[in-house]
Specification:
The protein is an alpha+beta fold. The chain is built from two helices and five strands, in the order E-H-E-E-E-E-H.
């Protein structure tokens, strides 16, 4: 499932990293804006990397989880927005 965020969306970097370190996902990737700059996130089995990049026009996160785990993750991601 893909979550798209409005153009003005910005995540709290520390809060987002803490959230993603604690959730069980099979695969996650995305392009995000944070209070510490733009990042590409890429991970498999909770081994997630954050690569700093120049600004982007697209803000999205793609998450693959088993069962019904996506809805809580989607809500938690929204809670990380500034």
């Amino acid at each position: 499932m893909v979550v798209l965020f409005p153009e003005q969306s910005s995540f709290d970097y520390k809060q987002l990293k803490e959230l993603l370190a604690g959730v069980k996902v099979e695969r996650i990737k995305g392009v995000i804006n944070t209070n510490q700059g733009w990042f590409i996130i890429n991970g498999v089995d909770n081994n997630i990397s954050y690569i700093s990049i120049a600004s982007e026009n697209t803000r999205r996160i793609e998450v693959i989880v088993r069962g019904s785990g996506f809805k809580p993750i989607s809500k938690a991601l929204t809670d990380c927005l500034e």
